[in-house]
Write a structure and sequence with these properties.
The chain has about 60 residues and is an all-beta fold. The chain has one domain (about 15-55). Helices cover about 0% and strands about 50% of the residues. It has no helices and three strands. It has a three-stranded antiparallel beta sheet with strand order 1-2-3, with no helix packed on it.
């Protein structure tokens, strides 16, 4: 996944990733784009939990 997309000096134990998915093929393909937000939290230099928020608002 690489380093976090959004960095903040206030949250050293949190990495944020944003990515987009656009359906292009298949019967459910409507050309809309979904934005996903993934947050990884660390404790003692280990992954403590992962949160994923799907924002279903089309962006285009």
């Amino acid at each position: 996944m690489g380093g976090p997309v959004i960095g903040t000096p206030y949250e050293e134990n949190r990495w944020d990733y944003i990515y987009y998915y656009k359906t292009r093929m298949g019967p459910e393909s409507d050309g809309s784009t979904q934005r996903y937000w993934l947050v990884i939290f660390f404790e003692n230099d280990r992954v403590a939990r992962i949160e994923k928020d799907v924002i279903s608002k089309p962006t285009g």
